[in-house]
Amino acid sequence: MKLFVASDVHGSYFYCKKMIEEFNEDNYDYLVLLGDILYHGPRNDLSLEYDCKKVAELLNKYSDKIIAVKGNCDAEVDQLMLKFSIEEKNMLIVDNDNKIFLTHGHLYNDVNIPPLRDINYLFFGHTHRKFLKTIDGITFANPGSVSLPKDNSNSYLVYDNGKITFYDL
User: Fold this and answer.
1) Host H or E run for residue 91
2) Which of 73, 116, 137, 153 has the smallest count of CB within 10 Å of its CB?
3) CB–CB of 111/103 below 8 Å?
């Protein structure tokens, strides 16, 4: 399975377009969005070309390819604009023998591990910083932020059959 994993778009049409362009350049099975998709949140600056309606319209064209979890800035009203679900706070997907736990990161992360047995990967966003570490057999990965990075890198990651690679937009 080949996944394009991104987080924290925060309503930036500029960076959402770039993300979709990169997604279209390769043959990914899914675009995984780890929350904070439309709204910028009360603690964040407005993202470049902040336009929630345009972001929703663009992402809705890919609704059959999107797996998404709800972030701390995602509201119930956001779901009304999207043709894919952002209702779940956490999700588990399976790739052959690999169990991948998806979450935004404000609840579960490398410090607060979910009470599940035998997960191999935990992908989370929220911190707006790229991160990769293996602890007790679990690989924790954060793609950073597409639009509002705190490490000066508008980034995403690719999971390809157990291999994780980071890319900048």
Assistant:
1) strand 90-95
2) 137
3) no
Q: 81-106 burial, b for 16+ CB within 10 Å, e for fewer?
A: bbebebeebbbebebeeebbbbbbbb
Token reading at 146: 């597409």
Angle of helix 52-60 relative to helix 13-24, nearest 10 degrees?
A: 20
The enclosing H or E element of 140 equals strand 138-143
Whole-model pTM? 0.96
Residues 10/161, Cβ–Cβ less than 8 Å: no
User: Residues 6 or more apart from 2 whose CB is under 8 A from it?
Assistant: 26, 27, 28, 29, 158, 159, 160, 161
Domains and CATH numbers, the chain: 2-168 (3.60.21.10)
Over residues 109-119, the mean pLDDT reads: 91
Average the pLDDT over 33-56 and give the result.
89
Pairing of strands 155-160, 163-168: antiparallel
